[in-house]
Amino acid sequence: MHNLKHTTLATAVLLGLTLCGTSNRGLSAAELPGARPVIDAAEYPSLQAAIDAVPAEGGIVQIPAGKFEISEPLRITGEDIHLSGAGSATHIHNTNTDGEPALALVPDGEYDRTATGGNRKMRWRIQISDMRITGNEKSGHGIQALWVNEIFIHGVTVSENGGDGILLDYCYEDPRVCDSLITYNKKVGLNLLGCHDIVVSATHFEENNDALHCIDGYNLCMTGNNLDDHLRHGVVIENTYGSVVSGNMIEECNGAAVILDRDCYGDTISANVIAHNGQGVLLKDAHGCAVSANTFTILKERALYIGPDSGRITVTGNNFSNSYLGDGKVRRAANDFAAGGLVLEGTSDVVVSGNVFSGLTEPAVQHIGDASRRIVFANNVLTDVTSQHDQLEDSVQGQNIAPEAGDSK
What are the boundaries of the region Disordered (predicted)? Predict the structure, then answer.
């Protein structure tokens, strides 16, 4: 009994000391050296007031769940800022009808958008995450950013805006757009102007006018995205080099799935599924590019086009097909049976090797316009197709396998 009393007393004293120590730490109000408080937008009269409360050194603005209607842009003029929501439950809706964006990440004061080099008011590291941004037919872009290096947009839904979903205008260093949903915008879903070392990954694009533009840039890495139902084109790349479009699903664009134009070089289009679009990959002005390991299925016309301003192209390991299922069966009905092949127009220095062309309603290889030269067409399989590859001038036709129609099982 005596020992029990002493044990109980010792335990109580120890517990008291522990609680006292805990209480003292809580009352000290000490904080981590260098830490800045989170700005809770719910404690401010407006979202703009919360953004304006970010100190010059940067910080985070946390926007709660709710629908927030704005009639003029939310302006972020600083840097090292993170604007974060609570997922799609944080909904910023732009009611502006004068073409103004919802979020404007632009420099403060007067500026010349066309400025170059050191005359640009470059800012660094702005992050937008976990929210929904919508507009209307007369509003502007969902997110408009000018001269922001290392911009990072992720977990964002950008829909129904009158301009582009996201416009990154000379956001030169390392822009990243990941894990987002970009839909139903009247212009371009994601418009990249003058950017480089770009990552666009794991993002859904649906029913914008065009899904993505990459203009006057380089080193685009576009991988693992899903593009569907665009009113015009999927991916438009111009005056851009050293880039890769790989591992994407591009389906049912009324225009072309991918276009390379205006002095593109050193780009790769690889391992994509390009299905049921108006046209497939159009190389209008591209050199030194590879088109490899793609599946081109039921393209209405021109699954792959190489034009007179393009050359030095490698085409290998692709499959050009209809909806054949085996045993003489096809999935698509007679009114949805079109399947295009490769079209060459006045191009030169092209290798076409190791591809399968099967069940196409257009010739596997078709040449139009000026004669194409120095074309190597070898080691391909042609099944249930017609082809004009043997009519190419100044070219090489190696050994290709062409079984009789109906022989394929």
Answer: 389-409
